[in-house]
TrEMBL record:
Family in the record: Belongs to the GST superfamily. Zeta family.
Sequence ranges assigned to domain GST N-terminal in this UniProt record: 1-81
Chemical reaction(s) catalysed: RX + glutathione = an S-substituted glutathione + a halide anion + H(+)
Protein name: glutathione transferase
Listed EC numbers: 2.5.1.18
Limits of the GST C-terminal domain: 86-211
GO biological process assignments: glutathione metabolic process; L-phenylalanine catabolic process; toxin catabolic process
SUPFAM superfamilies assigned: GST C-terminal domain-like, Thioredoxin-like
InterPro entries: Glutathione-S-Trfase_C-like (IPR010987), Glutathione-S-Trfase_C_sf (IPR036282), Glutathione_S-Trfase (IPR040079), Glutathione_S-Trfase_N (IPR004045), GST_C (IPR004046), GST_Zeta (IPR005955), GST_Zeta_C (IPR034330), GST_Zeta_N (IPR034333)
Pfam family, one: GST_N
Gene Ontology CC: cytoplasm
Length: 212
């Protein structure tokens, strides 16, 4: 069975959990407690040398990084395609996914926020995260307005949605970002909350989530 190294609150793990659910793949959940620093244990560093979740183990094959994992799953398990066949919509899915994973999430990563709080100021972490999230959301709101249907790039769920849902969850439930400027993103957040594959991937439903 597939194994997913994950942390309940990790948005990068959450993307992969949605992908696994959409494709109807069962997997064993291997919790890595990021707050306890388990990502830096010698055992985990053998799985992912940079010490980040998620990581997927498929038999004797190991792959890390949510984008790489999702592309691996996409090719190995073609059911419920994560990419549209239309070339331009596919490119927009890559753009939106990478905007989240390269231009928003790295700024909110535990390592980055801790660094800012320690080297700059304890209150600066939150300002820093909100600034980068806001900048990314302004871009996503503009980018997707010409492509969105019920979901980010049309009426079917695709890769962009897998990256957006966890990012929106983090903005709304964790960071408390003011979302009034982002009506389209808010509408997408609502739409995701109605889909079982997304509902079952939310942080609070994961085996390592605190019970209260
Ligand atoms: N590009 C990577 C980023 C992975 C990443 O940043 N993971 C975070 C959780 S979302 C992490 O493990 N952080 C641990 C740390 O900062 O020590 C991906 O998409 O998987």
């Amino acid at each position: 069975m597939l194994k997913l190294y994950s942390y309940w609150r990790s948005s990068c793990s959450y993307r992969v959990r949605i992908g696994l659910n959409l494709k109807g793949l069962e997997y064993e959940y291997k919790a890595v407690d990021l707050l306890k620093g388990e990502q830096f244990s010698p055992e985990f560093l053998k799985i992912n040398p940079i010490g980040y979740v998620p990581a997927l183990v498929d038999g004797d094959f190991v792959v890390s990084d949510s984008f790489a994992i999702l592309m691996y799953l996409e090719e190995k398990y073609p059911q419920h395609p994560l990419l549209p066949s239309d070339l331009k919509r596919k490119a927009i899915n890559y753009q939106a996914a990478n905007l989240v994973s390269s231009s928003i999430q790295p700024f909110q990563n535990l390592t980055a926020v801790k660094y800012i709080e320690e080297k700059v100021d304890a209150d600066e972490g939150d300002v820093w995260t909100k600034t980068h999230m806001g900048k990314g959301f302004v871009a996503l709101e503009k980018l997707l307005k010409d492509y969105a249907g019920e979901y980010a790039t049309g009426d079917e769920v695709f890769l962009a949605d897998l990256f957006l849902a966890p990012q929106l969850y983090a903005a709304i439930n964790v960071i408390n970002l003011d979302m009034t400027q982002f009506p389209l993103l808010l509408r997408l957040h609502e739409a995701y909350s109605k889909l079982p594959a997304f509902q079952n991937a939310v942080p609070e439903k994961q085996p390592d989530a605190p019970s209260s």
